[in-house]
Amino acid sequence: MRAALGALSGVLAGGTALAVAELVSAWVRPQAGPVIAVGGAAIDRTPAAVKDWAVRNFGTDDKLVLQLGILAVLALCATALGVLALRHRLFGAGGVLLFGVAGAAAALSRPDSRGVTDALPSAVGAVVGAALLYFLAGRPVPRDAAPDLPDGTPPERDAREGPGWDRRGFVIAASAAAVASAGAGTLGRVLNGSSGRDAVASREDVVLPPPGSAAPPLPRGTRLGIPGITPFVTPNKDFYRVDTALVVPKVDATSWRLRLHGEGVTRPVTLTFDDLLRRELIERDITLTCVSNEVGGPYAGNARWIGVRLADLLAECGVRPPSQGGPADQLVARSVDGMTLGTPVEDVMDGRDALLAVGMNGEPLPFAHGFPVRMVVPGLYGYVSACKWIEDIELTTFDAYDTYWVKRKWARRAPVKTQSRIDTPKPFARPRAGTVMVAGVAWAQHRGIDKVEVRVDDGPWQEARLAAEGSRDTWRQWSFPWQATRGGHTLTVRATDRTGAVQTDTRTRTVPDGASGRHSVVVTVE
Fold it and tell me: What mean pLDDT comes out for the span 355-382?
């Protein structure tokens, strides 16, 4: 019983420390909370292969799994410290303080750290948690539970063990601590939830001007209308999100600024959100793909983006691409959360519709997808082009600066690979014999898809029907009417892009520059 009460004391102390830290982070900023800070630091130090495994196995829930894992580890450590405090109160309380130091150090190490104030949530929470554990560990054993000595006399107390508790006193103290910490944690979450109120209001006030260059009308036949096929336009709520932000930044558009500077920039500029809206806006359908997308994976989406042509802005600032003698070959985009992405200047200025996007599918960017402004560059994987919550653009060289992912062994340059996917039938489906419609999407942004073929088992490749092309920067739907016979079968798809390159059958993982191979599904025809 003594150990159980000590463990309970530790858990209460740990929970109180986190609750107080949550409350203090509402005054500082949500990203300074210990779980978020430690989680961010863990992400930064995790090898690329492990991150790739997490995305592959947990998908967009990887951040939730990480935070739950951190809480589980903290609970186990708090339990151990509570038991330790029964014999060594100072050591137990000191252990809580050490965790506070670790949280504070993690907060200060973040790329977007705002200085010493970011250490306050972890520090204050740890002090309160340590004090509570020291208090509860005074003697968390009911007096009537301590065994008498062999001669029948009550045991003598060690003065170092504290004032002692009876059962009722311990229950009252522990209950009060639990209620107080729950209240502090709830209040902290409420305040943190409302901390982006100005940002939310600024987004609600945005009225996107009509584009000076509207997206071309989609040709008839762009959408095949086959049940189970991925829609041509991905709704915002379904668009994939893969990033390192444990807390989605909520940026106030009225105070947002974008600084453009660096090598070859003869006219540096700082722009407001309204400055961008006053420029000519263009609207384009563009498919984005995450480099973490496995063959046949879900991390690709197509949206109608509206924004400012990035090449025009760079040219106005005096930037020239390397092919025209410009000194910078890398554009480093920085996010408000400290993320850095590196994009080839040549690609941004080669005539493709590289955007500083302000809208997505007819509305201002959602917060999860970069409000108020993000980059969109057709033909490049997101980790070298799609900076969300962007606030700084610096022109430099690849030799001079390695961005976040490059430091973690991902490739500096990463054009999207030609890929295709079977959306229907699903793996292990059991369709009936007869005509079965096999369908899906294929993409090779900025090159375009020329042909899609399907193979049944080890048979010949047969050409599928292609939907009309939205543009060479969008994916294309495809379909193939298969005369299915009873038994087990393997369906495989491959695409050919507009350059004549055929999707390779060589399987590679996502690291360092995107997965390759051909998607296949196994079905049983009944």
Answer: 98
Which residues does 65 contact at the CB level (< 8 Å), separation at least 6? 54, 58
pLDDT for residue 145: 46
- Nearest CA-CA partner of 75 in 46, 106, 43, 99: 99
How many other CB atoms are found less than 10 A from the CB of residue 409?
11
pLDDT digits (tens, 9 = 90+) for 189-241: 888 877 788 999 999 999 999 999 999 999 999 999 999 999 999 999 999 99
C-alpha angle 370-374-378 in degrees, rounded to nearest 5:
125
Q: What is the pTM of this model?
A: 0.88
CA torsion 424→429→431→436, rounded to 10°?
20
Alpha-carbon gap, residue 270 to 258, rounded angstroms: 5
Task: Provide mean pLDDT across the span 163-186.
Answer: 82
State the DSSP H helix or E strand holding residue 449, giving kind and residue range, or none if neither.
strand 449-456
- SS3 label, residue 70: helix
CB 242 within 8 A of CB 290: yes
Amino acid letter, 47: P
393 in the Ramachandran plot: left (φ > 0), alpha (ψ -120 to 50) or beta?
beta
Mean pLDDT, range 105-119, rounded to an integer: 92
**Are the C-beta atoms of 125 and 24 separated by less than 8 Å?**
yes
Provide the angle, in degrees to the nearest 10, between the axes of the packed helices 167-193 and 120-136. Answer: 170
Name the residue with tokens 């520090």. 123
SS3 356: strand
* C-alpha to C-alpha distance for 270 and 316, rounded to whole angstroms: 13
- How far is the first Cα of the chain from the last one, in angstroms, to the nearest whole number? 61
Task: Report whether 348 contacts 294 (CB < 8 A).
Answer: no
The answer to whether 16 and 128 have CB atoms below 8 angstroms apart is yes
CA distance 337 to 251: 10
As a whole number of angstroms, the distance between CA 57 and CA 452 comes to 28
Q: What is the pLDDT of residues 315-339, one digit of tens each?
A: 999 999 999 999 999 999 999 999 9
pLDDT above 90: residue 169: no
Backbone angles phi, psi at 480, to 5 degrees: -150, 115
Mean pLDDT, the chain, integer:
92
Per-residue confidence (pLDDT) for residue 166, from 0 to 100 = 67
Which sign, positive or negative, has the C-alpha torsion 284, 290, 296, 300?
Answer: negative
Residue with tokens 């062999």, as numbered in its chain: 150
Q: What per-residue confidence (pLDDT) applies to 163? A: 46
Q: Give the phi and the psi of residue 445 in degrees, each rounded to 5.
A: -55, 140
Distance CA 402, CA 399 (A): 8
